[in-house]
Design a protein that fits this description.
The chain is an alpha/beta fold and about 190 residues long. The protein contains eight helices and six strands. Strands 3-2-1-4 form a four-stranded mixed β-sheet. The protein has a two-stranded parallel sheet with strand order 5-6.
Length: about 190
């Protein structure tokens, strides 16, 4: 992961794009998302967990001392309307192009898991076991759960739609948020 992120930062620097990022938290009612926005206003990391947000910041800044983080007001956040619409039940799919160096830095298995997460329809859920099977590891339910926990773009890549066979399983943002997201999408009883 370290080498992939370092190469990403070097490419930005060589292209004279700069190494400025926005690191901020946005509140939507009961939900707070922590977001890293990179050059050209692309979301590079999104989580409900402040500790994961801080770790992603440290990973980027620790690889290049010219990485600068700025803050952004929520009203100036390019994707604010999409997130407001989602949290009020008026948006079922984010029309946001995924371009995160953290995706490319994932292992091949993680990348397969994240790809399958993106295909879970709004209002549905699957089990960790089924996700592992889809990702090519029929006995890898625990590994699929770990890959969900490492998801760098929570909500956009909907890892909250994956549950254990006998319960909710885990969620980096906490089980209360996972329950709320599944209830918002009316997905709790709709496992496929």
């Amino acid at each position: 992961m370290k080498n992939f992120l370092k190469n990403y930062l070097q490419k930005l620097s060589k292209a004279a794009i700069g190494l400025d990022f926005v690191s901020t938290a946005f509140s939507y009612g009961n939900f707070t998302i922590y977001c890293l926005i990179g050059p050209e206003e692309k979301i590079v990391h999104l989580t409900f967990a402040p500790n994961k947000h801080e770790l992603a910041r440290k990973q980027l800044s620790g690889l290049d001392n010219s990485v600068v983080f700025k803050t952004l007001k929520q009203k100036d956040f390019r994707y604010n309307t999409f997130f407001k619409d989602y949290f009020t039940g008026n948006l079922s799919r984010f029309p946001i192009k995924i371009d995160s160096p953290f995706i490319g830095a994932g292992t091949p298995f993680q990348q397969r898991v994240w790809s399958h997460l993106s295909a879970i329809p709004y209002g549905s859920c699957i089990t960790y076991q089924r996700l592992a099977e889809l990702a090519g590891s029929p006995k890898g339910a625990r590994a699929a759960g770990t890959a969900c926990g490492a998801n760098p773009l929570s909500l956009i890549i909907p890892c909250h739609r994956v549950v254990a066979q006998n319960g909710l399983g885990g969620f980096a943002g906490g089980l209360d948020i996972k329950r709320s997201l599944l209830a918002l999408e009316d997905a709790e009883g709709n496992c496929i």
